[in-house]
Amino acid sequence: MGNVLGGRIRALRKGKGVTQDELGKALGVTSQAVSNWEGGGSPDAEMLPSIADYFCVSIDSLFGKTEEIQNDPGKAIIWDLHNTEREKRFEKAFKYCWCINQGLFNMNPQFINETIKPEAIPVSSEQKFSSILFFEEGVTVTRLNENAHFFFLMPEPKEGKQKYLHKPEEYESLFALLGKPNYMKTLIFMYGRKKLATTEKMLSKHLSLKTNEAKMILEELSSRGFLQSNNIETEQGESGFYICCEFFAEMVSLVPFLYFASNLIEKPFLGFSNTSGTVKSII
Length: 283
Prior knowledge:
By secondary structure, this protein is α+β, with helices and mostly antiparallel strands. Helix content is 49%, strand content 12%. The strands form 2 sheets. Strands 1-2-3 form a 3-stranded antiparallel beta sheet, with helices on one face.
């Protein structure tokens, strides 16, 4: 945030045609203080109104929030997330998603806000609490649990969903692979290790498998792109190892797939239902 503010002060100062020393004297600070602001430091909060008044701009504008951004909700969200601490961005983004979910709901927004308070999201209970909205125009799925919350939105394709699905045989092949004994255990074990490599001997030890069985599982999952296989030369000769890379599209897609599948395994908590208007079903 300091870089945004410093860059704006520097740009405004140069646009006004004043030096750091002149700006400092006008604000009652040293030129070194101005230099520090422009270099990434932040002025004291009580200085912001004086700086904004000097340049005849709003305090929001000092932080890069121009009138164009204020009048464009999409740009405002981008600006807000950009200026949020990195470790807090996803949680703030999820709250925006929950607002989208509320806005799509075919009822008075005030009723929704009073029924499920925004500050109560995510739900802290271990019991699964989901909101699933079906419309003619599309579907949203929101999981609200504290330790596993997500949001999915899909507008209805003009030509229908079936056009964009794979052939049934391809899904059957995927499910048959994941349904083989110990294959899902291996994937979940590997994903938990993230960037740590695993050999067939290590896998056989952790999952109580025979070494040749562990090797077969690792090789087949690697051939399907779920894992990456590599070789390393040791004193005993060449040895193979396997790793799960988070940037693999297959692995990134697997986790949302498993979370969605959990709704088929165990029905989530039924919060409230409404089938009026264009809403087909809500959980």
